[in-house]
C-alpha cells in the first residue's frame, strides 16, 4: 500500500464496527420467539450490515461525522430497498415515489400483525421490514454514539434496545444465545471504540507539518489486551447467565420474567391466548368492563375463537376478507334442532382494548356500536379496527340452544356443515396426549360420553397460574400441552387446549373460545327501553378466561368447562366426579342473584354513545408516526456528534485556562493533528501552526495562547491569565484548521462545519439543565425512600 493511501485511509474503526455488528445481529437472534422460524433473519442481517458498511466506508476516507452519518443512512436505505422494495425502486436500490407507497403498505401490514397476530408472529414483509429497519437505525445510532461522539459505554443503551422486544414478549425472554452475543459485542465495542474514536480525522494532515505522517494519533483510552478482553467478556456473560438462577425471586429467562411489563392493560390485541396469563397474574384487578343482562344463566362474554392447532403457537385466524356487514343482523347458519332461548345484554366496554367486541354467544344483532365492524361467519366474532372496542356502549341480542344431557347423548351422527379445520387432527400431537385421550375415553360409546370423560379427567388437575411460568411451559403449542399433561398443573388456556385437542383425537370437532368468565354484581341496574331494569355486573382482568367449545350435530357449538375452580360448570356437564362445588368463585355467578338498588349516574340507553366518549383511534396515524420517528432518528444520528462536541466545547471554555488548552487539543484531534503524549505545549502549538494561511493570524493566536498557558502552569502563583484572549485564540485556530482541510482532498465533498447544526446544539443544551435537575430530584427522592425504610 502506498504512503499516500495509508495517509488518506483510516482502518482503526473497523474492529469497533465489527463488534457492534455482532452485538446487534447477535441480539437479533433472540427474535426467533417473536417471529416464527428464521427466514426473517437474513434480510435483518443484510440491512444492519449494510448500514454499518456505509458508515465504515465513509470513515475509511476520514469524512466529516455529518457525512459519515449521511453515508450510513444512504446505505440503510439501499439495504431496505434491495430487501423489501426492489420492485418499486429504481435499479432495485434507489427509492422512488412508488417505494414510498410500498413502504406505507408494509407499515400497515406490520401494524396489522402487531395488533392481531400471535407471538411468534408470521414473518410477513411488513413486520420483517419494520424489524430490519428499526435494528438498522439502532446500529447507526450506537455507532454514532460510540465513535463520533467518543462515548462507547453509552452506546450500550442502543444495544439494550435490541433486547427489549424479546424480553417483553417472549415467555422464555431473551435466551442465553442472544444475550451472550449482544453482551460480547458490546464489551468488544467498549474495548476498541476508544482507539477508533481517537483516530478519526475529519481530513488528512496538511503537508509540511512538524511530525509529518509518522505521528501516532493520541488515544482517548487504552484498548484492552485480547486476553483481558476475553476474560472480561466471559466473566460478565457468565455472571449474567448464572446469577439470575441462584438469586431468589428471579423467574426463567435471561431477563427475569418478573420484571417484565405484564400489566399494560387487558389487551387481546397481540394474541389473546398469550396475554391471558399476564392478565390473570396481574395484581391490578381493576374493572375492565360492565354488562347488564336478562339472562337467567351465567353469562360468558366471548371475543374470538381459535381453531387451528398446528404450529408452535396458536392464535386467532385472520378472516378480515370474510367479514360481513352490517352487524345489526347476524345469521349463525347452524342447523339447530332443539328449542332456543333469547337474551339481551347491555355492555359498556370502558377501557377494554381489543379489535373484537365481547358478546354472549351466539349473537344475533348488535345495536349502538360505533365504528366500522364486521362479523365473521365462521365463529360469529365481531371485529373492527385496532383498539376499536374502547368506550363502546351497545346492546347484544343473543340466542342459545336449550342444551340438555339427553340432547347431547342423542347427537351421535357425524357432524357436517362446519369448517374442516375444526375437525382435523393437528400435526405433531405428542404420544402422551394421544395415549391420554385413548385411555380416558376407553369405554365411552358416544361423543358426549367421551367429552364428559375428558372434562372430568382434566378437572382432577391443579389450577395454577405460576407453575407454567416457573417450569417454562407458559404459552401454547403441542410441546406446551405435552408438558402440561406431565405436570398436571396450569390455568385456563392449558385446560381448554388440552380438552380441544383430545376431543379431536376421539372424533369431536372443537375450538377454543377466549373472553371473560361471569363477573361479579355491582349492585346497580341498567334501564333499557321496553324492559325492566337489568342487574349490572363487572368483569376485571382476573375474569379473563378460555374454554373449549365442542360441536354436536343439531346443537351447534357447546361450551364445556374443564378448568377447576374457575368459571361455571354447565348443568349438562355434571358428572359423579365433578360435582357442583368445583368453583371457588361462586359469588361471580349471575344465576339467582337479586339486583340491588340503582346507584350512580344513569346509564345511556342502548344505541346512544356515552356522553363525552372518544371515538376509537384509527390506524391511519401509524405510518405518519413511524415516518416521523424515522426522520427524527436520522436527524439525531446526523446532528448528535455536533451537539455533543458543542457541549464539550462550552464546558471546557468555561473552566478557565486549563479547560481552554484542553479545547485546543480537542481542536487538533478534530482536524487531524492529535496531541502526542511526548508533546510540550510549545511543540504542539508549532505543529498546529501548519494551518497558517499567510496573514500570520494563526501564529499570533497560538503564541498568545501558549504564552498564557505556560505562565499559568509554570509561572509564579497568582498570575492572572487573559482568558478572553485565550478563547479568541482557540476560535481562530479552529477556523484555520477547518479551512486548511479543504484543499487536502479536493476529490471529496468539503466537510460541513459543526456550526451548521449549532441550532440543534443550543436546543440540546437548553434541555440539559432541566434533565439534570429532574435527575437530581429523582435521586434525592430515592435516597429519602431508602432512609425511611432503614428507619
Automatic annotation (TrEMBL):
Low complexity bias (residue ranges): 594-615
Hydrolase keyword on record: no
SUPFAM superfamilies, per the entry: Cysteine proteinases (SSF54001)
InterPro entries reported for this sequence: Bact_TGase-like (IPR052901), Papain-like_cys_pep_sf (IPR038765), TgpA-like_C (IPR025403), TgpA_N (IPR021878), Transglutaminase-like (IPR002931)
Gene3D superfamilies per the UniProt record, alphabetical: 3.10.620.30
Residue numbers spanned by region Disordered: 580-615
Keyword list, A-Z: Membrane, Transmembrane, Transmembrane helix
Pfam families attached to this UniProt entry: DUF4129 (PF13559), TgpA_N (PF11992), Transglut_core (PF01841)
Transglutaminase-like domain boundaries: 484-564
Record-annotated membrane-spanning stretches: 40-61, 66-85, 121-141, 153-169, 175-197, 229-247, 621-644
Protein name: Transglutaminase domain-containing protein
Organism: Sinomonas cellulolyticus
